Amino acid sequence: MGRLLLAPMEGLVDEVLRDVLTRAAAYDLAVTEFVRVSGSLLPARAFHRSCPELARASRTRSGTPVAVQLLGSDEHCLAENAAQLVALQPAGIDLNFGCPAPRVNRHGGGAMLLADPERLHCIAATVRRVVPESIPLTAKMRLGIKDTERTLDCARALAAGGVVSLVVHARTRLEGYRPPAHWEWVAHIADAVQIPVVANGEVWSVHDYARCRSLSGVSDVMLGRGAVADPFLAERLRALANVGDRRRTPGIDLRAAAMVDWSADWQRLQPLLAIYWQQTLGKVSPARAPGRLKLWLRALQRNFPAAGELFRAIRSLQRVNQVSQALVGHGIAGEQASG
Q: Most CB contacts within 10 A, which of 47, 132, 268, 316?
């Protein structure tokens, strides 16, 4: 099968959840939340804050390589910061041209840059000049701002600028995260460029993966919210997908995929929830920790009924010791925390 990548998701997948998700299933690469570059040279600690894995050869505890994503619109500032980042030896540097957030877009960053393919080329080429070939320079884009009029021009511009791989979130900025994802457009992009293209968007299950591979024609897929809602999704894909070439639907036993034992998988997930909670307590303040756990449980309840029960049990709790006690009461062992 092709590569499986773990998507950057701002405000959700930090180094703690990256650690847990890459323990649950094997990924070929993970990408950090974006580091905003806006006119100044960031100190090394800014990159370590977004990617603590830099202290472990840019890998999670389970060994997954982690690329650092940069977001900005000034090619010279991006290049200066990329050069600073190169010294820290990341597993890769990724350029963000896909973020749809208004607070990013109002400053001309993220998906808004898709209005200007020449600008994309300039940014990619300028950054490429300071990034050695030993460090992959990649990019992530959407299909456009409101439509697909410039989609292929943008993809060609990034490829010509020197990125070695391109992730395509198969929706426009205007569409946000609303389904469907237009996987057929990933196929158009793959035909237009001579670099690997990765499909991203609306892959929640093995069935979605099979359709994505079939419609996009690409073998590499980036998992985002689907992996957060089912931490074992990548494991299921590796177990059920046979090797296939770039233009062939992967051989997936969909009947077997439909026989997921969510109750058994909840038992497997419980130790990972305990790890997530303890690491979260070590990262954020006691006032913020319960909210981080609730955010993940809300995503998990899409597949795990027990996660919904736990979420309802802690939804109104604000104190760390109360949440810890509730976790133990639901079979999730771990040190009792206070606060």
A: 47
